[in-house]
């Protein structure tokens, strides 16, 4: 097994790599490019960032719409992805204006905040020789799948949310508390938040089940660059 989960953090990209028999590796890469060798060598890497973007039309990505329907109280955690043209904009005003011109919608501040990372992943995956090695996940959908189809009951930024997510993950990977403890000891909270750790962990746990994976939608759409617009989760419990 060689499965990786990645989540964006203030310092760059936090990753958890599971290699079987209880072995794991954690780290922060300031640029995704630094993880190219690891991603290429992995069986699957799941990342919490939109992959595949609209370049025309008002219709939102189908994977995002379907994810919200499943997430119920956690639906607001699925942001509207920007159009590809917004990736090259330098500030929120121009990005939001560009998005409105292309899709008819302005960008939320939350969507704009992750646009630089979306652009980084978009550039990276388009240069990746095996694009299917890197796929999009959404942590809340993955947590739901690992929790008997029940969305998390608490906000991931709150202590109660941390506790319930830690409990879910620990059922699937006993080393989770140790991994979290090591990550918190190694990096200050200003660089790595607890929810970043948990989100990367659920991506790694999900990626470690390659035979149990499905996606939303079941038949992914393609964007104009040939990238799949999908969100991966663990089959059987969603």
Give structural attributes.
9 helices; single chain; two-stranded antiparallel ribbon; 20% strand; 238 residues; alpha/beta
- Overall structural class, as computed from helix and strand content, comes to alpha/beta
Distance between the termini: 23 Å
Largest sheet: 5 strands, mixed
Beta strand count: 7
Radius of gyration using CA atoms only:
17 Å
Percent of residues in helices comes to 25-40%
Q: How is the quaternary structure best described? A: single chain
Order of helices and strands: EEEHEHHHHEHHHHEE
Indicate the overall shape: globular
Residue-averaged pLDDT = 96
- Total of DSSP H or I helical runs spanning 4+ residues: 9
Strand order of the biggest β-sheet: 3-2-1-4-5
Low-confidence stretches: none
Task: Classify the beta-strand content into a percent band.
Answer: 15-25%
Secondary structure topology:
Layout (H helix, E strand, L loop, with lengths): L2 E7 L2 E9 L2 E7 L6 H6 L2 E4 L14 H10 L20 H12 L5 H5 L1 H12 L7 E3 L2 H8 L12 H14 L3 H11 L7 H14 L5 E10 L5 E7 L4
Parallel strand pairs: 1-4, 4-5
Antiparallel strand pairs: 1-2, 2-3, 6-7
């Amino acid at each position: 097994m060689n499965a990786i989960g990645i989540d964006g953090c203030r310092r760059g990209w936090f990753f958890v790599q599971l290699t079987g028999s209880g072995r794991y590796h954690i780290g922060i890469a300031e640029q995704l490019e630094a993880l190219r060798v690891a991603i290429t060598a992995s069986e699957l890497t799941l990342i919490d960032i939109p992959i595949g973007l609209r370049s025309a039309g008002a219709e939102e990505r189908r994977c995002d719409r379907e994810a919200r329907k499943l997430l119920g109280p956690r639906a607001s955690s699925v942001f509207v992805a920007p159009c590809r043209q917004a990736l090259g904009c330098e500030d929120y005003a121009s990005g939001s204006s560009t998005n409105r011109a292309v899709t008819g919608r302005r960008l939320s501040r939350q969507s704009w905040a992750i646009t630089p990372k979306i652009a980084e992943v978009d550039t990276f995956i388009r240069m990746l020789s095996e694009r299917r090695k890197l796929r999009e996940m959404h942590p809340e959908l993955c947590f739901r799948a690992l929790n008997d189809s029940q969305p998390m009951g608490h906000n991931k930024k709150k202590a109660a949310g941390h506790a319930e997510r830690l409990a879910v993950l620990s059922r699937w990977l006993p080393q989770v508390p140790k991994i979290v403890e090591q990550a918190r000891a190694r990096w200050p909270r200003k660089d790595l938040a607890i929810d970043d750790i948990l989100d990367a962990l659920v991506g790694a746990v999900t990626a470690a089940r390659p035979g149990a994976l499905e996606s939303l939608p079941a038949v992914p759409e393609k964007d104009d660059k040939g990238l799949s617009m999908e969100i991966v989760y663990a089959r059987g419990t969603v």
